[in-house]
Fold:
Amino acid sequence: MKNPAFTTIEEAFLYCRDMDASLDERLETFSNVARALRPEAQAAVDRMVERLKAHRAGDGAPRPGDRMPPFTLPDETGRLVSLQSLLAVGPVAVIFHRGHWCPYCRISTRALAEAQEKIREEGAQIVAIMPEREQFAAALKSDARLHYPVLTDIDNGYALSLNLAIWVGEEVQRLMGASGRDLPRYQGNDAWLLPIPATFVLASDGTIAARFIDPDYRKRMTVEDMVKALRNAQDPAGTAAKPQNQVRVAATHQPDPMV
Structure:
């Protein structure tokens, strides 16, 4: 697919978010345009990803066949939501996002929103987790038109317990700060930690049927793979025999998307 010509990142983001294409195509198109318009920033991201892969970031997270550790976290309205209450309804896809400001997360959530009713009709659910305060979780939910909860992982506590939280590094921290990414205000701390975007598909007994983890936040589990895994997770005994482990281990306010 030939990438259209854009003059600004925001213009490219809006096009990719709403384009009639798979999530992979949307993310790849945006990534290519971002690299063309801001090569220095993308080169810094490449270096961050190389550092994370060298340290096997995310490799220690729970694997298919494991039980997902429990959580109780506040949603975008302040209501506490537990993993146990979600699993009582059926299989769940637990998806970690970096934040409401992240263009890749916003493109992903728009694609997920387009599939959310189909997933609900099949007796499964989605829950999003991000390390930002309530108002920003609400902004992400509103922007993507989500009908499922967006939970706040205070101080990245749950992500840290899963070995998913990473420090962005001094170079990327400077770039983010220069472009208006105020993580201390969004998160309520100055740690500059973010979760590795990840998806865990759980059977109703809490067993991980499939997972996708990639230190390169420009990559996400496809919607098609997630839907298929949720459908398979309706039968925990079947998924236990064939776990899916997609891992790539070798980082209302809408700032200008950059990294």
Summary: The chain is about 45% helix and 15% strand. Residues 103-121 form the longest helix (19 residues).
